[in-house]
Amino acid sequence: MSKFNIIRRFKEWLAHEKKMFKKDDKEAYLFAIPYTILFLVFIIIPIFIAMYLSLTKFDMVSYPTFRGFANYVYLLTSDEEFMRYILPNTIKFAFIVGPGGYALSFIMAWALSQITHRLRTVLAIILYSPSLTAGVTMSVVWRVFFAGDESGYLNSVLLDLGMIIEPIAFLQSPDYLFTIMIIVALWSSMGVGFLAMLAGILNVPHELYEAAYIDGLKSRFQEIWYITIPSMKPQMLFGAVMAIVGTFSAGAIGVQLSGANPTPNYSGSLILNHIEDYGFIRYELGYAAALSVVLLLIIYFFSKISWNLFGEKD
Amino acid sequence: MARKFRAIKVNPKKFSMDQIPMLLLILPVASFMVLPLLYIFNHAFKPFDELFDYPPKFFVRRPTLDNFADLFDMASTTGIPISRYLFNSIVITIIVVFLSIFLSTITGYALSKLKFHVNKYIVKINTIAMMFVGTAVVIPRYLVIERLGLIDNFLVHIVPMLAVPVGLFLVKQFIDQIPDDLIEAARIDGASHFMIYRKIIIPLIRPAIATIAILSFQAVWNNAGVSETFINTDSMKTFAYYMSTLSSGSNSVAGTGMTAVATLIMFIPNVVIFIILQNQVMNTMAHSGIK
Predict the structure, then answer these.
(1) Which of A1, A20, A199, A262 could serve as B285's disulfide partner, Cβ 3.0–4.6 Å?
(2) Pick from B261, B219, B211, B194: nearest CA to B51
């Protein structure tokens, strides 16, 4: 009975699809298919493979063997590094760099929108240019800044000022590495999202402000809160999504800066490094896939929050 | 009431005193941002003895091109000249930029203007996929690429880089602004959809094209990961990869001069292209909102 129902439903659906297909422009399929295939193969399918592998034990050599939720159980109960360092580090990093970089981008965009065109362009290029440099190439520069002997700029300045007696090995020190990572990540956080917000602020119609002042707005802050942000919600959301992606992609810098995975005492290790540690160093790919799934869920969770804040409710 | 509040003045034509607080807000951040970049510039031109200066000096005193010469003379451990890496990077970048412009514009046109009943699903999935962090699923991606036979294949630099959800998103938003009547009129005159795409859409969406050009340029030109993970033959690796080996291999002071040069070479094209195209980019970003 119910089986028939399903078949009938499926047939109805198929007939409906056929009818819709007949009405479609056939070129649309031709135009959209190359992108869609690449998109499915390199973005969507890997996500599904990750989900499947996370339920298996797999070492790249022998065939994956199914073992249910064992990887997730291990993750929650036995992976001591994950619970003690990786997860807290990841969350701390995400909460500081994500909203921090986002707020910084907004404030800078807001201030920039109020100066003249030529000066604004120059300053916007300066603020945007760090995000043009990939983390990999720039880690070289930061490594010289924070180098652990007298040749490091920071050490040299601090020694000069007499604030320290011995040079500090900043990048090898569990006390400093995390802070340095946050500085570097914030430095390169003003990317496409920043440009979108700048364009958004520049395009808020001026009449809105005038009208609001007649209605009795009293401060700059009220103005931003009630006029500027609500009128550029779509750009705010785009900026938020870009900030989230940027934050989680920047998460690997700890390893580049310290030159070791895991980082000293796991102080700068985020979940991305942990995935590489298990995937490419220990060859426990099933477990690495479980970590990937957790990371994607964390990213999804953050995006959901932004969507609720700025998305249009329908 | 003491002072009546005035609305902010967006995009002022002339400089005035009330812009000074804004500048005071921006300049400290901007100088922090520009510091590392200034450092690369200075370091790249330092002669050998200045690199060894103690205490280290920020600014170069007697600029030379020694570091450039060193970098280009030095063959890597496998005996491959640096020009080979540069050549690979340039070829890959040009191909990817052009193909991804083509793919995202033609797909954007199909999704935005053609009758296509599944378009809203594709758009929705694409929007969600914007928050996809490629490195998170590096292992399954590896498996897919291996299965496709792309390991140690030059195409692996190109094919996986072509589908960029952010690029398609921006283009589609931009095409949405073009009035439907324009396309209707061309249809009545007997133009095919491909003709409309070429003669009407492409000229109208130049700013969006500039934007994806920049985005995909950055993604490809700076990419060291592909060479590191998927390519075994040294002569097929990219300049960005070579850069990253310099930075992890040599911690010596002499090496930093060369690395600064290499970073400079990586960085300059990015900035130049952005400066040339920045007006167009800002134009696209006005339509970047997620609705």
Answers:
(1) A199
(2) B261
All domains in chain B, ordered by first residue: 80-236+270-285 (1.10.3720.10)
Instruction: Measure in Å the smallest separation between the Cα of A226 and chain B Cα atoms.
Output: 13
Instruction: Please give the residue range of the domain that contains residue A273.
Output: 75-310
pTM score: 0.85
- Amino acid B3: pLDDT: 46
For residue A262, cis peptide bond before it (omega within 30 degrees of 0): yes
**Is residue A166 located within the same domain as residue A235?**
yes
Residue of B nearest to A28 (CA): B110
- For residue B28, give every residue at least 6 positions away whose Cβ sits within 8 Å of its Cβ, in sequence order, or none: none
**CA-CA distance, B31 to B25, in Å (whole number)?**
11
Q: What are the counts of helices (DSSP H) followed by strands (DSSP E) for chain B?
A: 14, 0
The residue assigned the tokens 């592909």 is B226
**Complex confidence, ipTM:** 0.85
Partners of residue A193 on adjacent β-strands: none
From the list A128, A141, A272, the residue facing B39 with the nearest CB is A141
A-contacting residues in B 208-237 (Cβ below 8 Å): 215, 218, 222-224
- Over the stretch A105-140, which tens digit does the pLDDT of each residue have? 999 999 999 888 888 888 998 999 888 775 556 677
Distance of residue B234 Cα from the nearest chain A Cα, in angstroms: 19
| C-alpha–C-alpha distance, residues A193 and A94, integer Å | 16
pLDDT digit string, tens, across residues B204-240: 888 888 888 888 898 898 888 888 889 988 889 998 8
Integer Rg of chain A from CA: 25
Which residues are paired to A66 by β-bridges? A56
- Integer Cα distance of A146 and B2 in angstroms: 51
